[in-house]
């Protein structure tokens, strides 16, 4: 068993492309080798801005031997009356590469057929790799690929070299104008020449001697340790930033960490501005002091070590000073403009062609936020703060600071609102209303922030559905799925119990020309949000049939959906659940098959069997208790009571023919079952359960 080494040498690849490309490279090698029947051991990947590499251990020298049986023509068609082979037999023998005499007869369900046992000894791995490796390289996916020169191939960046070794043997192939070899290349500035690699096991060591740290994980650990040490050298600690650490790891081939300083005068800027200015444009790490205060220092990861790092640091300090001077100018200028004036400027900013400007959206969100606050029992102050926060929530979009640093939207709204004397609840809500900004991200922590966040997201969802901009497949340009999940998560976390249907209809009413909205639009939005609920419930571990059953009945409030799901999941774990489910399913199925049936008042005078009276009595006994449990959110207790109906329901089915010939008896019995169904319909559609 030998080791395979593949390296694709390129011009600088964007940092965000590298990890996904390496994951795809490993996955495609695994898939292609499996399809080719070539056994192998672990696959390791390495990457720098100028190379993508993979090392496959214990790669078998040839394909696994394959033995297969192939059926040919029916025996009666393969030989004539004298037993001589026909054209069909001869052609089949030619196909499988055997003389007719070596063909066998196999009995099948359709009769006797000619057959052949074919053995494929397999090709050598080196020969296979000549075809497989180019296919894998060209199939690697990137957000954007490019072509260069007049070559017919494309890649993330132009390919300059290919290193392919199987043990000490070069795997010979050509890609574009580059032929594979046994050399790599070193650091662009420190060791720009070629680096000969004798065998795959020497790869990392050979590159290290040429000032290239090819193992991204090792490079990341080195950066993390050196950056922490640099921050400690100025009396601080590194501000944790996993995303930035991942980016700088793929911006350098040999990290050289240094610490710089900026003027304390810039500390008048909000910490978020300083951190963002360092992070977004310069890829610098911030340094924190005691009590979480920002220190006037930064840590930078250079790609090239220098004999005199002070010269390098001074260059970084000059660049950062210019950035911070701009930020200070933006900050001071923005603070002089009242947020109300910024709101008016939103009239010239388009939200969506069919939905008007950002100002139009703000007016809708403002009205919807007030309605939600009024319907969640927060009192007059919460209503006032929610409406005000909604009014100002997009004002910072036209500020100079957010124009320069878009990731500060909401943050600068909070900062400017506090500076201009707005209540803290309003200012905080302006920042929080964007949450969650990513899957699994933090939710709004305040009641006002939650109200405005729901209003903003519901307005976007309703507006897009109204305009026909509905997510399809992977296409979701307005991130409606994420926003829908955000609405559900916020309502659940805050315990907001008002029905989704009401907030959807209220939101649709606020759009211009609301009277022309198709009536089915609200139902589509409701189904869309219920789909988000289903996704969340499944991720939290609820069974698929439990989720389907719970969401098949009207969603009266988000917290109640979770409570009903937990209650039903608990009932399913009980040993007597299956007969309960069978009984309730039977009730549902009978009612569904009863064409033209409309429930009527149950008439006890029409009862013919004691089991009918017993079932009605059981229903009356439990009805008020179940309703009270539901009123106070005691879903598990309520469902346990409903489960007590199983025995009288079973007795009823045993004694009574529901679909009696007499129309009056039939309607009365169906009406009795409708009462029973009404009780467990408050929880779930039991016909959706697998048990």
Would you give an account of this structure?
By secondary structure, this protein is α+β, with helices and mostly antiparallel strands. It has a five-stranded antiparallel beta sheet, covered by helices on one side. A four-stranded antiparallel beta sheet has the order 13-15-16-14. A hairpin with a 2-residue loop joins strand 7 (159-166) and strand 8. Helix 11 (358-374) packs antiparallel against helix 12 and helix 12 (379-392) crosses helix 15. The mean pLDDT is 92.
Keywords:
about 50% helix; 26 helices; five-stranded antiparallel β-sheet; alpha+beta; about 700 residues
Largest beta-sheet details: 5 strands, antiparallel
Number of helices: 26
How many strand elements?
18
What percentage of amino acids are in beta strands?
A: 5-15%
Give me the oligomer status. single chain
Cα gyration radius (Å): 35 Å
Helix-strand category: alpha+beta
Mean pLDDT: 92
Strand ordering within the main sheet? 2-3-1-7-8
**Low-confidence runs of at least 5 consecutive residues:** none
User: Which descriptor suits the 3D outline?
Assistant: flat
User: What is the helix fraction of residues, given as a range?
Assistant: 40-55%
What's the N-to-C terminus distance?
51 Å
What would a concise description of this structure say?
The chain is of the alpha+beta class. It has 26 helices and 18 strands. The chain starts with a strand and ends in an 11-residue tail after the last helix.
């Amino acid at each position: 068993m030998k080791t395979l080494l593949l390296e694709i040498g390129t011009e600088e690849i964007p940092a965000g492309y590298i990890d996904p490309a390496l994951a795809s490279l490993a996955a495609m090698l695994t898939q292609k080798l499996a399809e080719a029947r070539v056994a192998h051991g672990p696959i390791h990947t390495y990457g720098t801005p100028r190379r993508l590499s993979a090392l496959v251990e214990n790669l078998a020298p040839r394909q696994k031997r394959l033995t297969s049986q192939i059926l040919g023509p029916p025996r009666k068609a393969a030989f004539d009356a004298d037993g001589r082979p026909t054209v069909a037999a001869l052609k089949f023998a030619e196909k499988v590469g055997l003389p007719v005499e070596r063909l066998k007869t196999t009995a099948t369900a359709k009769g006797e057929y000619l057959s052949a046992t074919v053995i494929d000894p397999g090709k050598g791995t080196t020969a296979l790799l000549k075809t497989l490796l180019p296919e894998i390289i060209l199939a690697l996916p990137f957000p954007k690929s490019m072509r260069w020169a007049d070559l017919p191939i494309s890649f993330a960046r132009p390919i300059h070299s290919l290193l392919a070794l199987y043990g000490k043997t070069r795997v010979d192939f050509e890609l574009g104008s580059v032929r594979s070899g046994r050399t790599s290349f070193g650091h662009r500035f420190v060791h720009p020449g070629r680096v000969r690699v004798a065998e795959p096991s020497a790869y990392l060591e050979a590159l290290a001697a040429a000032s290239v740290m090819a193992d991204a994980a090792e490079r990341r650990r080195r950066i993390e340790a050196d950056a922490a040490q640099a921050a400690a050298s100025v009396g601080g600690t590194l501000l944790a930033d996993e995303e930035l650490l991942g980016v700088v790891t793929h911006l350098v081939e040999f990290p050289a960490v240094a610490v710089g300083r900026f003027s304390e005068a810039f500390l008048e800027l909000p910490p978020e501005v300083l951190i963002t200015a360092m992070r977004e444009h310069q890829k610098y790490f911030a340094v924190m002091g005691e009590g979480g205060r920002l220190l006037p220092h930064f840590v930078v990861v250079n790609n090239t070590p220098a004999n005199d790092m002070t010269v390098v640091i001074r260059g970084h300090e000059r660049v950062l000073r210019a950035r911070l001077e701009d930020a200070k100018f933006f900050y001071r200028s923005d603070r002089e403009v009242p947020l109300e004036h910024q709101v008016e400027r939103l009239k010239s900013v388009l939200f969506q062609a069919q939905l008007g400007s950002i100002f139009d959206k703000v007016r809708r969100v403002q009205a919807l936020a007030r309605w939600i606050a009024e319907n969640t029992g927060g009192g007059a102050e919460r209503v006032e703060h929610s409406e005000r926060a909604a009014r100002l929530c997009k004002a910072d979009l036209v500020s100079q600071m957010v124009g320069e640093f878009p990731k500060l939207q909401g943050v600068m709204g909070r900062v400017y609102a506090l500076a201009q004397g707005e209540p803290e609840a309003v200012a905080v809500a302006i920042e929080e209303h964007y949450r969650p900004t990513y899957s699994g991200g933090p939710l709004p922590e305040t009641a006002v922030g939650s109200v405005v966040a729901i209003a903003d997201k519901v307005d976007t969802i309703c507006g897009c559905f109204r305009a026909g901009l509905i997510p399809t497949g992977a296409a979701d340009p307005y991130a409606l799925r994420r926003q829908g999940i955000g609405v559900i998560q916020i309502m659940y976390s805050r315990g907001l119990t008002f029905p989704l249907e009401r907030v959807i209809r209220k939101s649709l009413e606020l759009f211009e020309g609301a009277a022309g909205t198709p009536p089915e639009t609200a139902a589509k939005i409701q189904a869309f949000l219920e789909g988000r609920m289903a996704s969340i419930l499944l991720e939290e571990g609820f069974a698929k049939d439990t989720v389907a059953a719970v969401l098949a009945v009207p969603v009266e409030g988000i917290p109640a959906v979770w409570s009903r799901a937990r209650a039903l999941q608990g009932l399913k774990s009980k040993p007597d659940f299956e007969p309960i489910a069978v009984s309730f399913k039977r009730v549902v199925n009978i009612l569904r098959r009863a064409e033209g049936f409309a429930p009527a008042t149950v008439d006890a005078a029409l009862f013919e069997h004691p089991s009918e009276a017993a079932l009605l009595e059981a229903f009356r006994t439990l009805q008020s208790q179940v309703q009270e449990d539901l009123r106070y959110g005691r879903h598990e207790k309520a469902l346990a009571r409903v489960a007590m109906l199983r025995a009288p329901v079973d007795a009823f089915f045993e004694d009574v023919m529901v679909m009696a010939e007499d129309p009056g008896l039939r309607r009365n019995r169906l009406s009795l079952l409708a009462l029973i169904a009404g009780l467990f319909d408050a929880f779930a559609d039991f016909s959706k359960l697998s048990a």
